[in-house]
């Protein structure tokens, strides 16, 4: 619901948005000895669940004159996730799959976020465009896991400030500096202490003691739009996280879970890694080569520093980069061919390195309903061995 008033830009908005999701997944896995050829572990699992989210938002905008605008509002977010996992293990002697109570689980997770904000947009010295704001978020959650009981999740409050200063010059050029503070909450999968032992050599579990990840971002950018529609943007950035949430793995010669003992096993969980800092540069360009051909490209590189807080890992750093190219060809008034390629370099993390990877897409897109809708056929990495 939106109400406009007699004064320009003065308005009241009330928004209700709810999504109701029914989710189902299934897996099967088998592990064999090569010699002699025999199965030593096999299982399958069914995983139905629901994921419901409701948002209620109230926003009010008040013009103050002289290009100044005050905005304020409040929001409530209600999340409910219920997930059931039924696991069946093979008994090699009988060849039958039997229901396994130790690995089966039921999770019920509820989270409520209450937030309020105020922001102001105005000109300073008739030269600078300023937008600054402050947001307060209060989060509370409950989690009940059938195999490990109710997990006590402490509520927490977060203050989230932001600031954007920009200056526009002739020839559609803009320089902007911005600062933002953000919070990344762990989801219920990160928090669930249930041990997933479907792969007996690589077991995963959540960490109910996780704290939210806190981030700060500073950007200095320059952008320009040219007469024939080409655009260019360059951004220097710093991004830092404290309580950075990452996967962390420990190896054990023997490890006991309930009544079962696993040998030569890797246990992976989620941890708040001490701190991560990224310093980098991003370049973006969009060029209409002809009326029917458009090219867009992005190149980004950054130095990544990780202070894990763990004696076994210490401080590590490395350079990372990625680049992509997108090309679109307008074959006729409603048919478009699109090509996309992306390369990501190898990337360090708290333990070891994630290898580099390349992705590419090819698509035909048919525009419908006077270009208000479209339908597409897309192929991804179609020359790869595994598709």
Structural features, described:
- With 387 residues, this protein is an all-beta fold.
- Helices cover 1% and strands 74% of the residues.
- The protein contains one helix and 21 strands.
- The protein has one helix spanning 188-191, and strands at 2-4, 11-33, 38-65, 68-91, 96-99, 105-124, 128-145, 149-151, 156-169, 173-184, 202-204, 213-225, 231-257, 260-288, 293-307, 315-330, 335-344, 347-348, 353-354, 357-368, 373-380.
- The strands form two sheets. The chain has a 19-stranded mixed beta sheet that branches. A two-stranded antiparallel ribbon has the order 18-19.
- Strand 12 (213-225) and strand 13 (231-257) form a beta hairpin.
- The two termini are 46 Å apart.
SSE topology:
Layout: E1 2-4, E2 11-33, E3 38-65, E4 68-91, E5 96-99, E6 105-124, E7 128-145, E8 149-151, E9 156-169, E10 173-184, H1 188-191, E11 202-204, E12 213-225, E13 231-257, E14 260-288, E15 293-307, E16 315-330, E17 335-344, E18 347-348, E19 353-354, E20 357-368, E21 373-380
Compose a concise summary of this entry.
It is built from one helix and 21 strands. By secondary structure, the protein is mainly beta.
| Most strands sheet | 19 strands, mixed
Please, how many helices? 1
Give the helix proportion (percent range).
under 10%
Estimate the global geometry from the Cα principal axes: globular
Which class best fits the helix and strand makeup? mainly beta
